[in-house]
Specification:
By secondary structure, this protein is an alpha/beta fold. It is built from 14 helices and 15 strands. It has 2 domains: 164 residues, Rossmann fold (3-Layer(aba) Sandwich), CATH 3.40.50.720; 169 residues, Rossmann fold (3-Layer(aba) Sandwich). The chain is globular.
């Protein structure tokens, strides 16, 4: 199997599908790897680093797509890249199709087998390939939220940790999963007043034990969320339903009750966002303001810390890449229910029930 790594082309996306170290693992096992020139340059992985790992370097992305049996990326392919895919090929990357019908239709038309990082599972029912980026995004959410709360950035002028004699800022985290936990850790480290909201009472009990009572927990009823956002300086949306569109937890009417200069960070924006007023932004223009509330909705948040993110992602994806290469895609999918859960598109059809439902398209088992 020939494995291809094109350069990412989303705005300010510097991550890369495979590091030179990961390429070395593949070439040592006899699998040819084709890497587009400059694919890792933004995070100081040079073409020479990839050559030293045994990769072939080509100038153009299309040449990577034409030569490879499996394409390993980070972000979803753009429409012109989808057009390069062929039925015999496999695409292994983040897809987030529930919020992107044009991409889904383009992948269906390609006939390729498309496995999404974000729906691959593990033996505990977790999402091992989403986890590292959720960790990064969770930690980043507090970092960027604190930045945009500064008055010079248009924010309320609140220091999350407060100072002696001045109360800390309130942080409301919607969702107690991986991203929510890492956001809470960072906010707690800044000495903020932190509350995590979730609809699972069992999860709330786990979180109470994990943080030893230092973080408040609350059931995420509509009334509780509405009350929380009226007082919070920073609201972090960290809700995930694997493969499906994110639920809208804050409506436009609710937004009007928030304090002027407060900040919303929507980690769920790749899945359509969990605020009604959310829309995807880029690292070039990361924020917009509605009703005096700052919205940060960057769809590739971890791309801002691309070297850390790439290394963390490769640690998680490499075992799956090796499995697909060594067993072949059909056999790997047959023997691994976890990879099977990652299958989103194949044979010109949607193969993931939650994605099909979100898009209103037929589901093929």
């Amino acid at each position: 199997m020939r494995i291809g790594v094109p350069k990412e082309i989303k705005v300010h996306e510097y991550r890369v599908g495979l590091t030179p170290e990961a390429v070395g693992e593949l070439t040592a096992r006899g699998f040819p790897v084709i890497v587009q020139s400059g694919a890792g340059a933004g995070i100081d992985f040079s073409d020479d680093d990839y050559r030293a790992a045994g990769a072939e370097i080509v100038a153009e992305a299309q040449a990577v797509f034409e030569a490879a049996d499996m394409i390993v990326k980070v972000k979803e392919p753009q429409l012109h890249e989808c057009a390069w895919l062929k039925p015999h090929q496999t695409l292994f990357t983040y897809l987030h199709l529930a919020a992107d019908k044009p991409q889904a239709e383009a992948l269906i038309a390609s006939g390729a087998t498309c496995i999404a990082y974000e729906t691959v599972t593990d033996e505990k029912g977790g999402l091992p390939l989403l986890r590292p980026m959720s960790e990064v995004a969770g930690r980043m959410s507090v970092q960027v939220g604190a930045h945009y709360l500064e008055k010079a950035q248009g924010g309320r002028g609140v220091l999350l940790g407060g100072v002696p004699g001045v109360e800390p800022g309130k942080v409301a985290i919607l969702g107690g999963g991986v991203a929510g936990v890492h956001a809470a850790e960072m906010a707690l480290g800044l000495r903020a007043d932190v509350t995590i909201y979730d609809i699972s009472t069992a999860r709330l009990a786990e979180l109470d034990g994990l943080f030893e009572g230092r973080v408040k927990t609350a059931f995420a009823s509509k009334a509780a969320v509405a009350a929380a956002i009226r007082e919070a300086s920073l609201v972090i949306g960290a809700v995930l339903i694997p493969g499906a569109a994110a639920p809208k937890l804050i409506t436009r009417d609710m937004l009007k009750t928030m304090k002027r200069g407060s900040v919303l960070v929507d980690i769920a924006i790749d899945q359509g966002g969990c605020f009604e007023t959310s829309r995807p932004t880029t690292h070039d223009k990361p924020v917009f303001v509605i009703d005096d509330v700052i919205h940060y909705c960057v769809a590739n948040m971890p791309g801002a810390v691309a070297r850390t993110s790439t290394q963390a992602l490769n640690n998680a994806t490499l075992p799956f890449v090796l499995k697909l290469a060594e067993q072949g895609v059909a056999r790997a999918l047959e023997t691994s229910p976890h990879l099977q859960h990652g299958l989103n598109v194949a044979g010109g059809a949607i193969r993931h029930a939650a994605v099909a439902e979100a898009l209103g398209l037929p589901f093929a088992a």
